[in-house]
Amino acid sequence: MIQTDNYSSHLLEITVQHLSRLPGIGKKSALRIALHLLKQEKEEALMLGESIIKMRNEVVYCKSCHNISDADLCGICSSPSRNESIICVVSDIRDVLAIENTSQFGGHFHILGGVISPMDGVSPGELNIQTLVDKISKGKVREVILALPTTIEGDTTNFYIYKQLKNTQVSISVIARGIAFGDELEYTDEITLGRSIINRTPYENSFAK
Predict the structure, then answer these.
(1) Which of 100, 127, 158, 174 has CB 3.0 to 4.6 Å from 112, enough for a Cys bridge?
(2) In CATH, what number is assigned to the domain containing residue 83?
(3) 197 Cβ partners below 8 Å, 6+ apart?
(4) Which domain holds residue 16?
């Protein structure tokens, strides 16, 4: 807790407290941001504040893939240029951004909202797995690419999804292991991630190993 007598303004103190709660921002960084905002024109600070409020109030989740969206369907799911017969399954919205930055994937996504992790109390029922199964049952999808973190939890989730889909007509593949075990997709460089998507292998082959 920041001490009040460290600041000449209680309003500044409150702002620093809130900013320091953001991921990766400590109290010193929060203070620098707050002081920077004070130096800007009032209109700039107001635009920032209004954009945050508008985002929080109006952003929704795509009803098809669970991506962040401004409408019922996100820009990817509603794009006629995307291949809806291929779905890339990821754990997090940030993974979508990472894969999109590679420009090596032109299909749709499905965001689980995490991975199965009994230690953290995350069960399959708490993830967006059933909606994936329902989507596959409609018969339009021919390939599912599993692009989950290369961790024990990611592998467990891969196997669970494989069991749910193995009796369907879709082919199930997994991204190539150019990504080191334990790495998160969002921190993988674009070239390595892009090659991992292109060089994906049938899941059965990776499981056999």
Answers:
(1) 127
(2) 3.40.1360.10
(3) 88, 99, 102, 104, 105, 145, 147, 175
(4) 4-58
